């Protein structure tokens, strides 16, 4: 997407002047455009998730949910965010001001960086890296440092325990998650997200990695729920034990940033489930109108791109119903149960899954 | 090199996105004009006692040590997994030996009770 438009514009510029650095400056400025659109899209996506979660929670509990701000309460999250932005910014007197302030930002930055490699359409990806998913794994493990910093910087016993729990939980579930992603890149012979999606594009939905990696899929869901600190695993902010975990001392927009980080994390893990297991931007209907639909995916124009984005987002938001409903159906684990599940159940299972995948790949050569 | 240019720009933009909201409430932040109880640590209404940065459970530390052992080893698998169909059997089976050693270490750690929380 970037390259096509850029080359034509750059040729036009070169006809006017032959300065090389002007070309580079122009490319840099042109690169800002899709990035800003992506950030805007992510923000809207987070608002939609907050609204979805509140509406689904309300209907599970037989309440009405938000209804006054905008039609069906769509603008409720925006109103809450604006309110948080103008709240008083309290800094605890005995805490570490710098760690306290930077902590939420680090959590948000590390999660935002993962969106670089999400392909929304056949060529609609910000950076098609050959190390794709590996970048996400590397970058997303910075987030617990931010949580640990904010827990330590608050100088509050609840915050400190919450930060420790968050770090322990994130790093425990990082390894099964990585092993599942590793099995996927074994299957696709590539770590690039675009290649992973294209490896699933044959045979409609029968070509999804979901069918070739059922164990990996389940382990991935459980681990990503734990990484997002969603309810069966929301020990870092367990309301009954630690008041709000690492967020106890926070107020105003810093508190809001933690919520933005958690919803961003939810959105990106759902997007990764779509990309890694559910066929990404492909339409995934095997038998009906097979030729026509497969041609749609090959169209380069606005229409094909729009359909790609629509399919990706539809799969993502449909998948999001699972983490939202588990929040209201499953009870919280204890800390030792959580760590045992991670180290003694998910890790051996994902290692076995990796071994199975490897042997099937080796013998099918 | 050019494929990493979007990452640098995106890093700068995400820094801005997350740091600008921190600066917005500064005109409204009034740390000087509030009473000291408001700024003290929250401990369910009582006066906070002691320092929060005291001793904590050694098992959190054990978990992070285990992570440091296992995570780089898992990281080593990525350069092997991607070109699996291009490397010869020796390459693939030597990684199996590596995986075997990793598994033996993990089983040893399990039997020694490093991941027990009781």
UniProtKB/TrEMBL annotation, chain B:
Its EC number is 7.1.1.2. Core subunit of the mitochondrial membrane respiratory chain NADH dehydrogenase (Complex I) that is believed to belong to the minimal assembly required for catalysis. Complex I functions in the transfer of electrons from NADH to the respiratory chain. The immediate electron acceptor for the enzyme is believed to be ubiquinone. Core subunit of the mitochondrial membrane respiratory chain NADH dehydrogenase (Complex I) which catalyzes electron transfer from NADH through the respiratory chain, using ubiquinone as an electron acceptor. Essential for the catalytic activity of complex I. The chain crosses the membrane at residues 7-28, 58-78, 90-108. This is NADH-ubiquinone oxidoreductase chain 3. Its main location: mitochondrion. GO terms for cellular component: mitochondrial membrane; NADH dehydrogenase complex. Keywords: Electron transport, Membrane, Mitochondrion, NAD, Respiratory chain, Translocase, Transmembrane, Transmembrane helix, Transport, Ubiquinone. It is an enzyme of class 7 (translocase). It comes from the Eukaryota. The lineage of its organism: Eukaryota, Viridiplantae, Streptophyta, Embryophyta, Tracheophyta. It catalyses: a ubiquinone + NADH + 5 H(+)(in) = a ubiquinol + NAD(+) + 4 H(+)(out). It is a multi-pass membrane protein. One of its GO terms (molecular function) is NADH dehydrogenase (ubiquinone) activity. It is found in: Mitochondrion membrane. It comes from Spinacia oleracea (Spinach). PANTHER family: NADH-UBIQUINONE OXIDOREDUCTASE CHAIN 3. Pfam families: Oxidored_q4. Belongs to the complex I subunit 3 family.
